[in-house]
Amino acid sequence: MATMQDVARLARVSVSTVSYALTGARPISQATREKVLAAMAELDYQPNALARGLASRRSRILGLLLPLDERGLGATESAFVTGAAATASAAGYHLVLSPVDAGDLDGLRRLASQRMLDGVVLMEVQVDDPRVGVLREARVPVVLIGRTGDTADLSYVDIDFDRTVRDAVAHLVDLGHRRIVHVNHSAAALAGGYGPALRSRDAFAAAMTGYGVTPVMIPAEESAAGGRHALTTAFGRAPDLTAVLAMNESAVFGILGELTAHGRTVPDDVSVVSMVTSPQVAELATPALTTMTSPGTAVGRIAIEALLRHVRDDGTALHQELLPCTLEVRGSSGPVRRQAVGAPRTEHPS
Amino acid sequence: MATMQDVARLARVSVSTVSYALTGARPISQATREKVLAAMAELDYQPNALARGLASRRSRILGLLLPLDERGLGATESAFVTGAAATASAAGYHLVLSPVDAGDLDGLRRLASQRMLDGVVLMEVQVDDPRVGVLREARVPVVLIGRTGDTADLSYVDIDFDRTVRDAVAHLVDLGHRRIVHVNHSAAALAGGYGPALRSRDAFAAAMTGYGVTPVMIPAEESAAGGRHALTTAFGRAPDLTAVLAMNESAVFGILGELTAHGRTVPDDVSVVSMVTSPQVAELATPALTTMTSPGTAVGRIAIEALLRHVRDDGTALHQELLPCTLEVRGSSGPVRRQAVGAPRTEHPS
DNA sequence: GCGCTTCGTCGAAGCGTTTCGACAGACGGC
DNA sequence: GCCGTCTGTCGAAACGCTTCGACGAAGCGC
């Protein structure tokens, strides 16, 4: 493995000149640069990343911090990750994937103090997230995917739940729906301060109230069974419901199944809109789901771009951006039926 | 940020003693060790990972190399990644996620020569994969997830397609099925030497031949539409089919839809077994899919464990392991119907 | 009590870069 | 023709750690 020494020797220049030729930190004459480049090519020289990082105090490594519970990544989160990885790589940075259990602040502190990460993207942010404080204390540049409650002096990229919910509701209202049920993430997620659950709940309540309708909102466990159960509850609270807004990618399939079990067809009797969902998942259902399609890799990309700006200039302004999900109408939503009001049946099966 | 110097000064020992106390590379008396540890605690000392890596020639960073096409990670691959990340992290290593386009050998060479990665796990391996050669040339320890054609001197972890297919076929045969159709990955994947597609095809052919039945095998694009199309073809080639073995997670939902469109119910008329599938995905379908459940995070974990052994001892033997998928019977498979033979209908819709 | 190991510690030499101050020479203004 | 400015290059000092050889102090057998 050739070193800079070797290159310098071969090119008959000093080591520092090689360095300048490589980084452009100081002007180098055309002739010298060419000699150096030739020597590099001949020796098949590659700079040692660690040495470079030590001397320059920049590792060119970014961290992607996310809690890694056993249920793994959903399609949406996985798109964030791949978007981030691709962007970092294209910019000549490495992206390390660091599982940090939300509670393990000491581990995080250790990670941050190793000086290995030039900056981090923090995923799965809670509304009140202690990890942010730890990172700030360690003076590591941070960009959030998601938002804390107090967004005053942090950069973040997040989904615009407010707008997404409004657009989804508007779609359903345009189709004539009024009795719309919001099936949220789990009660535990709500209690734990999970942003998407909280924000979409509030946005939904506001939107429905705006239309003069009392909002019906039900939490659901993150599983098909959770969705089924939530729907049973929904029929209890709003037997005349004609539409469901599902926040919860896992639950939505249970919802579809339970609708069928209740003798309702989709979209003729009940419309379903799945929020923050990827097209791939939407196509899995029959009929294919009308979704608010999540911005996917763009979220990860924008987060890394913002982080790079912080890492490089340091003085840059905050980047705060909300990306809306876009409505994609597929087979699961349609106009409300004329005679709809008055529930066809009121039994409570299994 | 405290350095080792600071610790040494405070503990009134030399820098090297601090290093030995930290790494255990040489024996240190109990008394001295305690002094050093106390000093570290007081200064809130964290070793600088880069300096450590430069001096010891071990970065404690592993790479996870995978092509990152726009369609992102499936549930199964995503489990590999999270399993790997969790294991690396638990072992005190960092895991960088490096998107390497399958063709970009130069980029890979550069990555490998930076001396930043102690070893790499290579995912999405082709049967004839040039990346392996590049890595070997750069003397970077490698573990594959998947296998090349010539497995002689490489460590790998892979799914045991042979056994998985045999078990799945046995399950269906036990239920009385004989006309079983194998819906594979896309023709492009087959042509490109994608291991899972190739191996499962061969295993299926062997298994069916073993039962004295001519195998029916059809490739399908990785989408619901691909599944639908494949099924139409299937009905053409085997109108009396009673079971489908689906390799292709995306296509399987299309298959289910198309079965319904053909007037067949699952599992009464046709049984469906989804290969190498996660339970989460299985639950999305109605009825829930009988699957050969993929080993999920275990694959990533084992790959990292093997890689760490290579990185540390260097001399260790190869690790070659095949993990079978385990049969989980859910609602999509059942006994063949008595009068089954002789197709109910033979129309070719849409 | 003698030399021999063994144990615990130290000092110094790297590891392969970046970066800082210095400086020689070319250049232009007046 | 002299001085001040740039340009392009060099040498050396970091960066914060690991590791090697050396060495005094014990501990041992005989």
From TrEMBL, chains A, B:
<keyword id="KW-0804">Transcription</keyword>
<dbReference type="InterPro" id="IPR028082">
    <property type="entry name" value="Peripla_BP_I"/>
</dbReference>
<dbReference type="GO" id="GO:0003700">
    <property type="term" value="F:DNA-binding transcription factor activity"/>
</dbReference>
<dbReference type="GO" id="GO:0000976">
    <property type="term" value="F:transcription cis-regulatory region binding"/>
</dbReference>
<keyword id="KW-0238">DNA-binding</keyword>
<protein>
    <submittedName>
        <fullName>LacI family transcriptional regulator</fullName>
    </submittedName>
</protein>
<dbReference type="Pfam" id="PF00356">
    <property type="entry name" value="LacI"/>
</dbReference>
<feature type="domain" description="HTH lacI-type">
    <location>
        <begin position="2"/>
        <end position="56"/>
    </location>
</feature>
<dbReference type="Pfam" id="PF13377">
    <property type="entry name" value="Peripla_BP_3"/>
</dbReference>
<dbReference type="InterPro" id="IPR000843">
    <property type="entry name" value="HTH_LacI"/>
</dbReference>
<dbReference type="InterPro" id="IPR010982">
    <property type="entry name" value="Lambda_DNA-bd_dom_sf"/>
</dbReference>
<dbReference type="InterPro" id="IPR046335">
    <property type="entry name" value="LacI/GalR-like_sensor"/>
</dbReference>
<keyword id="KW-0805">Transcription regulation</keyword>
